[in-house]
Amino acid sequence: MAYSEKTRGIYQGQLKALEEAGIFKLERYIHSPQAADIEVEFPAGSPLKKVINMCSNNYLGLSSHPDVLEAAREGLETRGYGMSSVRFICGTQDIHHELERRVTEFLGTEDTLLFPSCMDANAGVFEAILTKDDIMISDRLVHASLIDGIRLCGAIHDTYKHSDMAHLESKLRLHADKRLKIVITDGVFSMDGDAARVDEMVALCEKHDAMILVDDSHATGFIGKTGRGTHEKCGVMGKIDVITTTFGKALGGASGGCVSGRRELVEMCRQRARPYLFSNTIAPVVVAGVLKVLEILSATTERRDKLERNTAYWRKGLSEAGFILKEGDTPIVPVMLFNAKLSKDFPERFTMTASTPLVSSSRSFPKGRPAYGRRYRPGTRFITWTKRWMRLSRPGKGSRYSARPSRRLSTGTACEGRHRADRRLREGRDDPGHGRRGRLGENRRARRERPRPAGRLSGRGRDLE
């Protein structure tokens, strides 16, 4: 057979390596609805334990809200279970169109298009609106779904240092000759908990004739005075060209996502975005539930106000207890432990003990990073959750490691040799191809500003400095 013992052994070795590295993922079986308090079977086959749920995206506690459940039942009875079709053939019901209208109104945009998930929205939007003559400039800490969407697009890709507006402007100037430019960022960064400086980014985009895309999945429903998102918080409602967001977090937590923004860009996605064209429609039961969620959030800000109070209380309590936190004002609160093994063992010890918090053990960082932390997010019942780890410099030592993770440059604009030279300089080593360290340092800025040809790198790229 094609799946030989040799092939099996290769995969068994890879899985064993994941276990030995402490990043093998195990599922916890929940025997109750998603909520602040749940019953969990972990490890598999063990007795059920009642635990506090600290690792869901249920920011506003609406995943099992009785009004949302009732709306979903009504949608199931009146519109059926599924559509068995893509949207443009026979998969669009009146409630799909109504949800698009309601989301457009809620976000303050011109039009909206539904997708099966925000992952699909991010995977399809760039290819639909850009060509090889365009440039995508993304924050170096954007979400994995945005990275995948960027990789699928034929446009040139460049990055700027996390939330560094001066660096972003230098990249906009560098690529001033491109047909179209689009700046890409998360609204709230799910791993660091900080919000993008969207107002400053909008000003730069207006100055340099560039569009801006914001993935607001960790902001829609609870960031801003009325929960519209980071564009409301920063006072730039109506100035964001493309917003992608999800219904799978604060807005009920089921599934689905959307692209919302300029009418022409949304229509391009309707005509060309492959995840929209070749994926089944969002189930009617989900659409009905999200419509009820938007009705609840439009009527009152009580839930997002409570979440804001819980966040402040949680930060204050952790600080007073002596924990080291990463600064921020969103419900994502990174707690730094500075030890990879401790961060791995911490949630497992909690889960093994009845009536204690359940936190996630997911790890999403490149191999070999020096230090890590945990992140927690308070919910409406002072529930917190943790998801990923923060890379830091080695405390108390001179280190070549920066305070940000390295990211791959999927489509490049510079040669590999220059990246190697910059890396060797940071490490304090000489580069044989460019002379001694002093001369390399003097010419470093000049090399960075050198015009770069368009096109993809043939090999694996690295971040531009």
Give a summary of the structure in a few sentences.
The chain is built from 16 helices and 14 strands. With 465 residues, it is α/β, with parallel strands linked by helices.
Question: How would you sum up this structure, described in words?
Answer:
The chain folds into three domains: 5-55 and 301-376, Aspartate Aminotransferase, domain 1 (Alpha-Beta Complex), CATH 3.90.1150.10; 66-299, Type I PLP-dependent aspartate aminotransferase-like (Major domain) (Aspartate Aminotransferase, domain 2, 3-Layer(aba) Sandwich); 412-465, no CATH class. The longest helix has 19 residues, at 302-320. The protein contains 16 helices and 14 strands. Strands 4-10-9-8-7-5-6 form a seven-stranded mixed sheet, sandwiched between helices. Strands 1-2-3-13 form a four-stranded mixed sheet, covered by helices on one side. A three-stranded antiparallel sheet has the order 11-12-14, covered by helices on one side. Helix 9 (230-233) links the parallel strand 8 (211-215) and strand 9 (242-246). It is α/β, with parallel strands linked by helices and 465 residues long. The termini are far apart. Helix 5 (118-129) packs across helix 10 (263-272) and helix 7 packs parallel to helix 8. Residues 360-366, 368-374, 380-419, 429-442 and 453-465 have low confidence and may be disordered. The protein is 38% helix and 13% strand. The chain has helices at residues 5-21, 66-79, 87-90, 94-107, 118-129, 144-152, 165-174, 198-207, 230-233, 263-272, 274-277, 284-299, 302-320, 340-352, 416-426, 437-448; strands at residues 29-30, 37-41, 49-53, 111-115, 135-139, 156-160, 181-186, 211-215, 242-246, 257-261, 324-325, 333-336, 357-358, 373-376. The radius of gyration is 23 Å and the shape is globular.
